[in-house]
């Protein structure tokens, strides 16, 4: 017997709404979200305010710290030609844990960056939340002057590493280090190193068990001006050794291990010309068992205004290291093209960390031969680019009226394996929850499990953070911060078939309702099928529970006769798909078109 299945849920878009925080703050620009699950808190940095949210009880009023600039500073800022509200506020751009009781916080300080310490107490029950008096210091090299320029930072062993613009005019970009050791930076006004960068993410990734090999990776986009071509934006991954002390002869107090490579995210077009997604928007780094090899997710959009589109590309550290171990890009002079450097490469290989696996006898970059330092100054760029896994994006959106702006990923254990669930923020105030399943050797199947409107007004999502402990996704925009549950199994309805067809790895039918799946529960009592979404197998005997409003899930057609199969979508967003399936088989085929006539309520099969 053949079975025709009417599938609505494959394209289901249940547009729910997230819960909003009732903030009475008159402020904007909620850019910084810093999760602190040990203290059951999340810190939020906005314009002039630093908040501490209780993760345990999210409806509780947050602890609020007002940290504006003085009236005098504001007046000076306005007199220098800047906008009162848009630029002359104290836009918080950095919140880092400092010690057991304090956070280190920096803001743009009305075009005069400032940093200070916030006492958050030892335990959350203490409800301590105040600025440490008399401890304001300069934020130069830690936070940009202009709130519109993206900066990133990481506080590691008391040293602050930042990708910032360090001047008022916003022309001097640098990867900067401040702290106990001597200040370090990228070569100034050297466009081979950095060229109008926009910093997106920073992450420490170890290279080996030897701590001296530790490298800090910067993700950014920048302008690339090839000879005879108009400047374009390109995505980059750059890195430095944490223990870089700069050169001895030259590059004094400048990074002597800085290297960068291009990140490619593209699809072939119909005409054979690649469409490049070059505008790197956000990066999420998924830790794995092996700390040296996290998985890198990037969200990209198309730069320029020719057409709109965005994509998610995934990179492996193995591919990234291979590019950094490959040829250096070389340019003979301003009127030459970039080529692969084929000359002699000095020892130790440029970009190697001192005191590491390959350089046990050179304790500092100051011990490196002059030729290594000289080589570094002119060859910061790798010749090969980093391609995504499988040489193609994981998710692509073109010909739609929105773009992705942010990404975060959760790993979920389901009955039939582990899944990466992508949460993708858009520029219209929604979050899409997406899984990508392998279909066959070359193809993948993407499922949008749901799209949630997190802000009533369409506004770009700026930052997203997951609280695994609380199973919540926190989302911020210009307008505020909201949260939504990672799983909302009840939206899929009460029937076993609905739950199964939803194919949400978080959810399973427990005999009564669609609820959170947990690996610790007895398998037999839980019905879930993420891979195939096959309710015939999973829900045999349970289908009669489906209420009349939900679609008729499975229609039996007997071969050799004509049958009308009824199928109505229960959601206006749902798309209907018919699949032909032989009994006792998991394989599904598109039904042959010449035998099937689709009408509004169903399909007629001859
Ligand atoms: C909110 O802030 C804006 C600009 O900072 C100001 O113009 C407005 O009067 C404020 N509204 C209230 C209710 O305080
Ligand atoms: C943490 O740092 C702050 C600021 O430097 C300092 O006042 C405080 O005493 C430190 N606390 C601990 C526990 O070290």
TrEMBL record:
<keyword id="KW-1015">Disulfide bond</keyword>
<dbReference type="InterPro" id="IPR015943">
    <property type="entry name" value="WD40/YVTN_repeat-like_dom_sf"/>
</dbReference>
<keyword id="KW-0325">Glycoprotein</keyword>
<dbReference type="GO" id="GO:0071526">
    <property type="term" value="P:semaphorin-plexin signaling pathway"/>
</dbReference>
<dbReference type="Pfam" id="PF01403">
    <property type="entry name" value="Sema"/>
</dbReference>
<dbReference type="InterPro" id="IPR002165">
    <property type="entry name" value="Plexin_repeat"/>
</dbReference>
<dbReference type="GO" id="GO:0045499">
    <property type="term" value="F:chemorepellent activity"/>
</dbReference>
<dbReference type="GO" id="GO:0030335">
    <property type="term" value="P:positive regulation of cell migration"/>
</dbReference>
<dbReference type="InterPro" id="IPR027231">
    <property type="entry name" value="Semaphorin"/>
</dbReference>
<dbReference type="Pfam" id="PF01437">
    <property type="entry name" value="PSI"/>
</dbReference>
<dbReference type="GO" id="GO:0007411">
    <property type="term" value="P:axon guidance"/>
</dbReference>
<feature type="signal peptide">
    <location>
        <begin position="1"/>
        <end position="18"/>
    </location>
</feature>
<feature type="region of interest" description="Disordered">
    <location>
        <begin position="580"/>
        <end position="606"/>
    </location>
</feature>
<dbReference type="GO" id="GO:0005886">
    <property type="term" value="C:plasma membrane"/>
</dbReference>
<dbReference type="InterPro" id="IPR036352">
    <property type="entry name" value="Semap_dom_sf"/>
</dbReference>
<dbReference type="InterPro" id="IPR016201">
    <property type="entry name" value="PSI"/>
</dbReference>
<dbReference type="GO" id="GO:0030215">
    <property type="term" value="F:semaphorin receptor binding"/>
</dbReference>
<keyword id="KW-0732">Signal</keyword>
<dbReference type="GO" id="GO:0005615">
    <property type="term" value="C:extracellular space"/>
</dbReference>
<protein>
    <recommendedName>
        <fullName>Sema domain-containing protein</fullName>
    </recommendedName>
</protein>
<dbReference type="GO" id="GO:0001755">
    <property type="term" value="P:neural crest cell migration"/>
</dbReference>
<keyword id="KW-0472">Membrane</keyword>
<feature type="domain" description="Sema">
    <location>
        <begin position="4"/>
        <end position="486"/>
    </location>
</feature>
<dbReference type="InterPro" id="IPR001627">
    <property type="entry name" value="Semap_dom"/>
</dbReference>
């Amino acid at each position: 017997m053949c079975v025709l299945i009417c599938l609505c849920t494959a394209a289901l878009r249940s547009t729910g709404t997230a819960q909003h925080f009732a903030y009475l703050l008159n402020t904007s620009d909620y850019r910084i979200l810093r999760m602190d699950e040990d203290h059951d808190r999340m810190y939020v940095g906005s314009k002039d305010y630093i908040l501490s949210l209780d993760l345990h009880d999210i409806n509780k009023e947050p602890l609020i710290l007002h940290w504006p600039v003085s009236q005098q500073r504001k007046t000076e800022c306005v007199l220098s030609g800047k906008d009162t509200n848009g630029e002359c506020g104290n836009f918080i751009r950095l919140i880092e844990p400092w010690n057991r009781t304090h956070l280190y916080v920096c803001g743009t300080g009305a075009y005069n960056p400032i940093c200070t310490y916030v006492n958050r107490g030892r335990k959350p029950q203490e409800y301590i939340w105040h600025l440490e008096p008399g401890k304001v210091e300069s934020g130069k090299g830690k936070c940009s002057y202009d709130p519109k320029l993206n900066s990133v930072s990481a506080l590691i062993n008391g040293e602050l590493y930042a990708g910032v613009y360090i001047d008022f005019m916003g022309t001097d970009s640098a990867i900067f280090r401040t702290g106990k050791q001597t200040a370090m930076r990228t070569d100034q006004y050297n466009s081979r190193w950095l060229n109008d960068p926009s910093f997106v993410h920073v992450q420490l990734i170890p290279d080996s068990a030897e701590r001296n090999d530790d490298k800090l990776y910067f993700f950014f986009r920048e302008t690339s001006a090839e000879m005879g071509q108009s400047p374009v934006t390109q995505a980059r991954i750059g890195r430095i050794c944490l223990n870089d002390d700069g050169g001895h002869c030259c590059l004094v107090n400048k990074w002597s291990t800085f290297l960068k490579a291009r990140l490619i995210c593209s699809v072939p077009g119909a005409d054979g010309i690649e469409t490049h997604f070059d505008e790197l928007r956000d990066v999420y780094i998924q830790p794995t068992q092996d700390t040296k090899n996290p998985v890198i997710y990037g969200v990209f959009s198309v730069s320029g205004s020719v057409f709109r589109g965005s994509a998610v590309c995934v990179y492996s550290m193995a591919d990234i290291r291979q590019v950094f171990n490959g040829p250096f890009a070389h340019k003979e002079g301003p009127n030459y093209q970039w080529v692969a450097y084929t000359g002699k490469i000095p020892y130790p290989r440029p970009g190697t960390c001192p005191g590491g696996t390959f350089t046990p006898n050179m304790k500092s970059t100051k011990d490196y031969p002059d030729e290594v330092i000289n080589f570094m100054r002119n060859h910061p760029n790798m010749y090969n680019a980093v391609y995504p896994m499988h040489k193609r994006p994981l998710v692509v959106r073109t010909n739609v009226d929105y773009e992705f702006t942010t990404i975060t990923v959760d790993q979920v254990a389901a009955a039939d394996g582990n899944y990466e669930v992508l949460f993708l923020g858009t520029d219209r105030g929604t979050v899409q929850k997406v899984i990508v399943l392998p279909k066959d050797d070359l193809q993948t199947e993407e499922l949008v499990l749901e799209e949630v409107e997190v802000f009533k007004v369409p506004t770009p999502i700026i930052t997203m953070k997951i609280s695994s402990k609380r199973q919540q996704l926190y989302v911020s925009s210009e307008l505020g911060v909201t949260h939504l549950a990672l799983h909302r199994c009840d939206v899929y309805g009460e029937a076993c078939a609905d739950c199964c067809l939803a194919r949400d790895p978080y959810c399973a039918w427990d005999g009564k309702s669609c609820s959170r799946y947990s690996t610790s529960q007895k398998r037999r009592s839980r019905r879930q099928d993420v891979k195939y979404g096959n309710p015939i197998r999973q829900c045999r005997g349970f289908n009669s529970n489906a209420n009349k409003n939900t679609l008729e899930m499975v229609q039996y057609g007997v071969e050799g006769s004509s049958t009308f199969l009824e199928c109505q979508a229960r959601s206006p967003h749902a798309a209907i798909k018919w699949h032909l399936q032989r009994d006792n088989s998991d394989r599904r085929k598109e039904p042959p078109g010449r035998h099937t006539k689709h009408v509004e309520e169903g399909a007629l099969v001859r």
